[in-house]
Design goal:
The complex is a heterodimer of chains A (332) and B (172). Chain A is an alpha+beta fold and 332 residues long. Chain A is built from 7 helices and 14 strands. Classes of the chains: A alpha+beta (332), B mainly alpha (172). Chains A and B meet through helix 4 and helix 5 of A and helix 1, helix 3, helix 4, helix 5 and helix 6 of B.
């Protein structure tokens, strides 16, 4: 008997239902002779409905994100979403400015600690540079006076010059690129300060980039290290023209492109913006903004142009504040 | 109330990421604190709260950096959801799930973001985005994963409810 019971116990439930228990009754109720019917299981259990709700919620968020990306990308700076983004940026601006003020001491501490490693070699190099620059200043002073006198004689007409023909708008940084893809910064100055799209942005060290987007109180700057940024430039020593752009595969190195092989560019040459005009197209950057120093010059038989690497004067990783150059002629 | 705390944590992380953390470049990469916070929310609160946190965090960062709206939201929504599902299923009973999730999601998010930007016609330099900066970013994220997870857990933990019962059932 016990063996038979044991056999019965190990039989699968499905078999038990089909052979012994009528449909719609559990094995227990069947064995006890109770006529209570089982509650039929619902087609959608709580587990599967939870999964459905979860998928719906995430699907809705993904769909909303895709709609935002599409509208934002297609409408650019003029669409309705741009107004929403401008309003959002204006609302968030005080938080960003506050956070920037809080973060500043930490950034300074990081910069101080970082600079300790190279302090001794930097000091030596700067001392040598100061000696060299002191001599250059005297020569430049003479050259400037001579240049002014010749301009007056020739009645020379020139384009807008940096920095005399621009009103500087000094602005604090309130946002930085959040990934390796976007080489851009956000500053706490916008259209109310006179900033417009395509205005040049500099620091005391040199060229930073150009304004690509403006809201009432903030603006986005495309850095010179962005893949899509470029500036017409010239070698200050030889007046050789080229285009400065970001060097692929590096973070902050620039290249002076489109320099013919016969042109002479040397290591240590200073590169500045050319401010050149090609037909009706004028360079976004005014003439004479320092960009960087040539660190290497090379050429191959197959390339049409020389390969010139430029080390920018601006340290793009430690920008705190920048100067937007607002043309004075626009304000008149 | 907990939802509000989660949003506050995500908002502060987005601000910190935009203003401070993304400038701390070490070895060519910078840590992504917002991504770590979204992963932690996903692991602690589940897939849907993780996805919502990612969406809101992405929205804040896109507004702060005036980037294409929705781009970061899309990446972070999926990151938060994936971390949440991982926490609800495979990670149960495992040690240090935050570490594994941080490593995996950082790599996946970088590839996904690179793909999205490529689709939008932006020039993406694969070597820089996915090799030079991704390796140090992953390492920095792994380094910060556990402290960030602990901070988020302390911030969004639900208060423990006092058990009060008038009857006691003896189970034999």
């Amino acid at each position: 008997m016990s063996e038979r019971l044991g056999e019965a116990e190990i039989r699968p439930n499905a078999q038990l239902h089909s052979d012994v228990v009528p449909r719609g009754r559990s094995a227990r109720s069947g064995a006890l002779g109770v006529t209570v019917r089982r509650i039929p299981s619902t087609p959608l259990s709580s587990r599967s409905s939870g999964a459905l709700r979860r998928r719906l919620a995430v699907g809705a968020l993904v769909l909303l994100s895709l709609i935002l990306v599409t509208l934002s990308f297609r409408s650019g700076d003029d669409g309705p979403l741009a107004d929403v983004q401008n309003a959002g940026a204006t609302v968030l601006r005080p938080f960003a400015v506050g956070a920037e003020r809080v973060a500043q001491p930490f950034r300074d501490a990081y910069g101080w600690a970082d600079s300790l490693f190279s302090a001794r070699s930097d000091a030596e190099r700067y001392r040598a540079e100061v000696r060299e620059l002191r001599q250059q200043v005297i020569q430049n002073e003479f050259a400037l006076r001579e240049s002014e006198r010749l301009r007056e004689i020739l009645d020379y007409v020139d384009g807008p010059r940096f920095p005399a023909d621009y009103r500087p708008v000094v602005a604090e940084l309130i946002g930085r690129p959040d990934s390796a893809f976007a080489q851009a910064i956000v500053i706490a100055a916008g259209s109310t300060d006179g900033v417009r799209v395509d205005d040049s942005v500099v620091t005391a060290d040199g060229l930073v980039g150009v304004v690509t987007r403006v809201t009432r109180r903030t603006a986005r700057i495309q850095l010179l290290t962005d893949q899509e940024a470029a500036a017409s430039a010239l070698d200050l020593r030889t007046n050789v023209l080229g285009i400065v752009r970001h060097a692929r595969g590096t973070r902050e190195t620039l290249v002076l492109d489109r320099v013919r092989k016969r042109d002479r560019v040397r290591r240590g040459d200073e590169i500045v913006t050319a401010g050149s005009r090609v037909g009706v197209l004028t360079s976004l950057y005014p003439k004479g903004i320092p960009i960087g120093e040539v660190t290497s010059v090379g050429q191959t038989d197959t390339d049409l142009y020389q390969q010139i690497q430029v080390d920018p004067y601006v340290d793009f990783g430690s920008l705190d504040a920048v100067i937007v150059l607002v043309p004075q002629e626009r304000e008149e | 109330m907990t939802g509000l705390r989660v949003f506050a944590v995500v908002f502060v992380a987005a601000l910190a990421q935009a203003v401070l953390v993304s400038a701390l470049i070490l070895g060519g990469g910078a840590p992504d604190v917002l991504l770590l916070v979204v992963i932690s929310v996903g692991l602690l609160r589940g897939s849907v709260p993780g996805a919502v946190a990612g969406f809101l965090g992405g929205l804040v960062i896109d507004l702060l950096t005036l980037d294409t709206l929705g781009l970061s939201s899309l990446v972070l929504t999926l990151a938060g959801f994936w971390a949440g599902r991982y926490g609800e299923t495979t990670a149960r009973g495992r040690r240090l799930p935050a570490l594994l999730a941080a490593g995996a999601v950082t790599i996946l998010a970088a590839f996904f973001a690179a793909g999205l930007r490529y689709l939008l016609g932006e020039q993406v330099v694969v070597q820089q985005a996915l090799v030079s900066s991704l390796v140090p970013t992953v390492l920095l994220n792994l380094l910060l994963a556990l402290p960030v997870y602990a901070l988020v857990r302390a911030a969004v933990r639900e208060p423990e409810r006092a058990i009060s019962s008038s009857e006691v059932e003896v189970v034999v």
